[in-house]
Every structure is written in structure tokens, then in C-alpha cells.
Amino acid sequence: MGAGLDKINKLLEHTESLRRSFRNFNFSPDNIKRDERRYSLKEAQELVGRSYQAIRDAEKDGRLSPPETGPNGRRLGFSLNEINKMRDIFGTRPRRSENDDPIILAIQNFKGGVSKSTVACHLAQYLAKQGYRVLIIDCDSQASTTTTFGYIPDDDINENETLLPFLREEAETLAPFVRKTYWDSLDLIPANLMLYQAEYELASRPSASTFSLLREGIETIQDNYDVIVLDPAPALGMVSLNVIYAANALLIPMPPAMYDFSSTISFLTMLKNSMESLEKHLGSIEYKFVKILISRYDENKSAQQALVDLANDQFEGSVLTAKMRDSAEISSAGNRQRTVYELNGPITSSKVHNRCINILDSVNREVELLIRKSWPSHAKALREAGLD
After folding, report:
1. pTM for this structure?
2. HSE of 387 in the Cβ direction (CA atoms, 13 Å)?
3. Are residues 202 and 338 in the same domain?
4. How far apart are CA 310 and CA 296, in angstroms?
5. pLDDT tens-place string over residues 244-253
6. Quick one: which of 91, 132, 162, 168 has the most CB atoms within 10 Å?
């Protein structure tokens, strides 16, 4: 064994205890992640779309159970599960109709460090909070999304619980790999490091059908969902090509920095070439929308704003209006293996927290509107609201 490999092995000897220490730090006392977020009555009214009095009346006549109370008798607020029960009682879930196609949205860029998983996790939670049925599929062996949802990927998840068996054609449906999360109406197909084996195995037996496996798997479960979010690896590999073909919408995070702009241009070139090859062998790829999201934006840096203006000018309406700004709250929540949406209160300060929530909501509302515009059954409601 070489000296270099010996040094790496010594580092790896400590990773097991490091993983467990990390989870013990974040999820005491039982190491199980839960949604501890509670919503006030005012927030419940906004989310459910019913008045204070309507909610109180439903509690009085027994249709709704009142929220849990603390030792002092005060209400602790509503859980997301209770919010969704209200929606079911009042008929206010904003789902697609059976005739609408589910949105299969890939958050894709071949460059790392663009906040891809951050965008995917916050978007999935936001949509589930609004009442949609959401599945997020972690297609990246680095498993950042899986980690965000409370797992130690190579400890809690084995390869047979990821996409890998399906990509090996050892299963006929993705259903066995779907697991409920602590976040109501949001399911997960997790990943771990072994998912990287799919890159080699798919490359060893390439054919047209090799690139349509994920699409075929999603077709076996998509009727259960309104939106399926795909979080692929930041690379042009076999799994990413499966993602490109499986998706029917695309969101491209792009930080406003020259290297990231250059990388995104290269990504778009490779994407075009890949899609042309896929279409040649598999048929047309139809995307309901393709949008660029400015991520990691710092409004205090004038050079970034100049690049944003350039992007808006050159990409001709393909850039989302809302921007994913840099925030200490996102970083602080991530260090606790959480998203900002999971926090009951600020980690940094109320001002920073509230500003961050407003930023996230602005981005996710814009994506939600794109999703709803793709559904014919929502056309009338959008028109009446002046959002068409």
C-alpha cells in the first residue's frame, strides 16, 4: 500500500464516528428528524384559504381537532399535517386534475456549487406546504438532498433503497424505493454513494433504452404526485442523461459570476447536443418550461448586478424575476441539517430570517406559477386572479 493511500485510510477510520456525532448534534435525543415547525392561526388562514371564523366553526362542530396545547393551556400552533387536514375538509388543496400532466422538474446544472440541492429541497418543501403532492428523487451519489432529510446516506441507506436496483433493471416500478418523509405530502427516493455504480453499469451496456429507464420508472408512480423534483449530480453522466430525458421541465441555477456564466453556457451547449442525440434514438423531448434561476446572489456586489442585467438581456425572458440570494440563514440551517422552512424561529436574527423566507417564497411562488400555468385545469382560476 502506498503512503498516499495509507493516509486516506487513516482519515476514513474516523468518518464513522464523525457521521454519528454529526447526527447526535442535530437530532437529539433519538436521532430521528421531525417536522417541528408550527403555524399560527393567521398562517393557517393564509395557507388553507379560509377565515378565522371558518376554522373555529369547524373545530366547534367536530370536523377539525384543535391543535395541541402546552402546559399553560396555550395553543402550540398547527402542524403541516393538520393544515393539510383543514385543506381536505374545506376542499382547498391546489392539486392538478387527472387530465393534467404531473410536472417532472429537473434542477440541473453540470457545475457544482450552484445551490442545486438547496433549491431542490426548499422548492419541494414549499410546494408540499402549499398542499401539492410532491416526490423528490435524489439522483446524486453525493446525496445532499438525502442528508437534508435526516439520513446519513451510507449508514441509514443501502444501495437497494436507492435508484440503483431499478437502473439495474432489477425492479419493475419505483414504488418500493419511495419513502415518506417527516414533511407532510412530501416523499423521497434517497441516494447514497453506491448510486455512482450506475454510471459504470449503464455505460457498460449502452442502448437507446439505457437512457429512458428513469422516465419509465417515474411513469409507474407519477399518478400519485402533482410535482416530482429531480436532483441530479453536477455532471454529464449516464444518470444525468436519464434525468434530462425523464424531465418535462427544467430549472437551471446559475450564480452571477463570470466562471459560472461560462460554465452554464458550456452546460447549455452540452445539453443541446445530448438532447439531440436522445431525441434521435428515443423521440422528442418536450419541456413545459425552461428557466434560469440566479442563485447565490449578493445585491451588495455591483459586479453581480451587471452580470444579472447581462443575463436578462441575452436570455430574453428565460431568467426568473426572483433571485436566490445568499443568506446566512440558509447556511446556518444547513449546518443543522435543515432547510429554512423547517425553522420555528431565526438562527441568525429575525430580520435576516424573515428576509430569507421572503426571498425563498418569491422564488418558489414564481416556479409554482409556472407549474400551474402548465395545467389546463388551473387556467380559469389563474385568469380570474389576473395571473395568466
Report:
1. 0.91
2. 16
3. yes
4. 16
5. 999 999 999 9
6. 162
